[in-house]
Amino acid sequence: MRRHIARHNAERHGDATASHNYGYISELFGSERHKQLSPGIRLEQLMEILVHYQAQLDDGMLTSRGPPPPFVRGGYKVPYPAVKVQQAASADDGSPVASRRHAGVTPAVKVAPAVLVASKGVRPVAVLHASLYDEGVAFVLNLLDQQIDARSARARLRTEVQYLAQAAARQASSLHARVDMTDENAWLAMAEEVLRSPYFLKQLGSRHTLEG
Known about the structure:
globular, 9 strands, disordered C terminus, two-stranded antiparallel ribbon, 3-stranded antiparallel beta sheet
C-alpha cells in the first residue's frame, strides 16, 4: 500500500516525464496519469494488449517481432492518432515488488511515460489514449523479456488479465455511492467497450484462449 501511495503522489505532483515502477499492468490502469480516460477505454485497451501477446506466445512467435496490438476504441479497431512525440514511452527492468501470487517478489517494470502532443484536429482524449497504449505495450514487452520461458510468460499474462479485471471491478464498486450498482446498465457502462470488442471476443473464442 505504501508503494502505491508513493507512486500516486509522484505521478500527481512530480515530473511528467519521470519513470515510475509498476508491478502489474493493473497499476497502469489505476495510474493517476490515465484517470482522465474512462475506465472502459483503459480496460478495453490494456486487455486487448494482454490478449494480443498471449496469442503470439501461443503461436510460438517472438513478441518483440510480431505485429503490434490493435488500437481499439468502443469495440472497434481505429487508427492510432496523429501525434507529435516529445518523449516516446520506454521500459526497463524495474525494482521487484511483493508478489500477489506467492511469497517473495516478482518482476516489475520501470516505465518512462509517453509525452505526446496532438496534431491539428486530434482530440485530447485520443492523445491520452495513445499514451496509455504506448505505455501498456512497453510494459508488457519488458515484462515478457523478464520471464524465464514461454510457459512462465503465458502464466504471467493470465495473472495480469485476472488482476486487471479485478482492478476494473474495484473501480466499478467505488462508484456505488453515485450509481445504483444493482442496475445492470450501470455495470454494462463500465465494461461494455471491452465486452463487445470483436478483437477481444475473437481471440477469446479462438484456440488462443487464456486457459491454454
